[in-house]
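Supplementary notes for students who missed Thursday's class. We covered one full example, reproduced here. Read the sequence, then the structure, then the short commentary at the end.
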Amino acid sequence: MSSFDKREEAFEKKFALDEEQKFKATARRNRKLGAWAAEKLGMTGAEAEAYAKSVVAADFEEAGDEDVFRKVRGDLDAKGMQSVADTEIRAKMSELLAEAAAEIKAGK
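Structure (token representation):
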């Protein structure tokens, strides 16, 4: 195996690891976002956990974060919580993604 082939293989492995970590961080962020939204919606215990899982599942509808945002926004609206601004939800999504990525990187 040439030096170039070894380097290419290393880059491919790094890319695969990075993508796996991004996926895990996004799923963790979505679970945390679900827990945050569940608290706002007055849910606790098993109901809150089930809701958090439904937010994670919502991410598989389409690429990107819009499906998750729409789910949370829709559920808040359905409970009459229009006072929670779109910018607050998006800011929380960004905050929780950074938190989740740091946890994944730290091996938590």
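Commentary. The chain has one domain: 3-105. The mean pLDDT is 92. If anything here is unclear, bring it to office hours.
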